[in-house]
Design goal:
- With about 140 residues, the chain is α+β, with helices and mostly antiparallel strands.
- It folds into 2 domains: about 55 residues, no CATH class; about 80 residues, no CATH class.
- Helices cover about 40% and strands about 20% of the residues.
- It contains 5 helices and 3 strands, in the order αααβββαα.
- The chain has a 3-stranded antiparallel β-sheet with strand order 1-2-3.
- Strand 1 and strand 2 form a beta hairpin.
- The longest helix is centred in the last third of the chain and has 18 residues.
- It is elongated and about 55 Å long.
- About 10% of the residues are buried.
- Bound molecules: zinc ion.
- The site of zinc ion (ZN) has 7 residues, from loops.
């Protein structure tokens, strides 16, 4: 059964297709409370869940799910964000657990997902070996 659309809310909260991921998450969270015309997309749901877990719990070293990525590395596949995010070593802050070392390897910057993964692997390997992040060339 389709739920009633909250047209008033929609008129006041337009979602542009070029909105950033953070904006879209915020929009969908507000939308879910105000209106039930459509469910939160799976990609947004997964990201909300991931962020909620990261805030309340120390992240596990093993990647969740059936991912074959090394611990600390995640693949981001959003329309405007495609690449590998690597986070290693966590420290507790008032806002929750935060990675000490963090690097993003975008497909477009490295010339494709395979090259981005290679660069991410190399960075992670070196970091785990030396416990220090290498300054990346710009
Ligand atoms: Zn709606």
């Amino acid at each position: 059964m389709p739920k009633k659309i909250n047209a008033k809310w929609h008129a006041r909260h337009p979602l542009r297709s070029n909105s950033s991921l953070i904006r879209r998450i915020a929009w969908h969270q507000a939308h879910a409370k105000a209106c039930g015309c459509r469910p939160v997309p799976a990609s947004i749901r997964a990201e909300i869940k991931r962020q909620a877990v990261a805030k309340t719990r120390r992240p596990t070293r093993r990647p969740r799910g059936s991912s074959n990525l090394p611990a600390g590395m995640v693949r981001l596949d959003y329309p405007r964000v495609r690449g590998y995010l690597v986070r290693v070593g966590y420290t507790r802050t008032r806002k929750g657990w935060r990675p000490i070392n963090k690097a993003y390897f975008g497909d477009s910057r490295f010339g494709g997902p395979r090259k981005a993964r290679t660069a991410a692997d190399a960075w992670l390997k070196r970091l785990l070996k030396t416990r220090r992040a290498k300054k990346r060339k710009r």
